[in-house]
Design goal:
The chain is 23% helix and 32% strand. It is α+β, with helices and mostly antiparallel strands and 243 residues long. The protein folds into 2 domains: 10-63, Roll (Structural Genomics Hypothetical 15.5 Kd Protein In mrcA-pckA Intergenic Region, Chain A); 71-240, Pseudouridine synthase (2-Layer Sandwich), CATH 3.30.2350.10. The strands form 5 sheets. Strands 7, 10, 11, 12, 15, 16, 17, 18 and 19 form a 9-stranded mixed sheet that branches.
């Protein structure tokens, strides 16, 4: 768990890189070429320390540090809502947001009683990518039903490809408990949890427990219930290029 990042002084070339103009090495050349001003004066020293209150411009245009992108994975516990809900004591943002300066948005539709992996980020591109109803990416859920699932209904679920007038695709569905057949594993590729709940409701089953075990190939490994962590660089790269 990470404490809030406070804007601090930094070298001029690093500052330019944090403005999204180029990388640090390229920033050194731009600065030496006289394209950068600090407080209205051309500054050709890449090692100049820029204070938070300083005004920096590039080619005559004021620039500012971009907010760092954050990618946080949480193993959500029960009785915690995705967003503020007066009926629930805590939200995931109550737990996670105080540790970060950047405003995070949860991706997913887990309700307060549902469990498992939840991604939070301030990256608008990733939020859009995984929030649209037509998005195709792997999510693996462990469901507990109120009664055993009949084989005939299992086949109906497997063959459903449109639900609520929206594409819906389950890659795999299996019994996790062959004896009682109330424990179900589902690999959802396309569709929403609202659609999934609606499908089981239409067949007269109630989902008593839902636990997200895998989200876009992110797993619960070393992430106990109620904890959260930053994604590694490798995980962020995979997430951004996930198809």
């Amino acid at each position: 768990m990470e404490e809030k990042e406070i804007q601090t002084a930094m070298r001029l070339n690093k500052y330019i890189a944090h403005c999204g103009i180029c990388n640090r090495r390229q920033a050194v050349e731009l600065i030496k070429d006289g394209l950068v001003k600090v407080n209205g004066e051309v500054n050709t020293n890449p090692a100049t320390i820029v204070q938070p209150e300083d005004k920096v411009s590039y080619k005559g245009e004021l620039v500012s540090r971009q907010e760092p992108k954050r990618y946080v994975l949480m193993n959500k516990p029960k009785n915690v809502s995705i967003r503020k809900d007066e009926a629930v004591r805590k939200s995931v943002l109550d737990i996670v947001q105080p540790k970060y300066a950047e405003k995070l948005t949860p991706i997913g539709a887990l309700d307060s009683m549902e469990l498992g992996l939840l991604l939070l980020t301030n990256d608008d591109e990733v939020i859009r990518k995984f929030s649209v109803a037509s998005a195709a990416f792997i999510r693996i859920y462990h469901l507990t039903l109120d009664r055993p699932l009949f084989a005939s209904d299992l086949n109906i679920i497997k063959e459903t490809d449109t639900l609520l007038a929206t594409p819906f695709e389950i890659e795999n569905i299996n019994f996790l408990d062959e004896e009682y057949k109330t424990e179900i594993g589902i690999e959802l590729v396309r569709g929403t949890l609202t659609q999934l709940r609606s499908l089981f409701d239409s067949l007269d089953y109630k989902i008593e427990k839902l636990d997200c075990m895998n989200f876009a190939k992110l797993t619960k490994k070393d992430l106990p219930r109620g904890w959260f962590r930053n994604l590694s660089h490798k995980e962020v790269v995979l997430l951004k290029h996930f198809r």
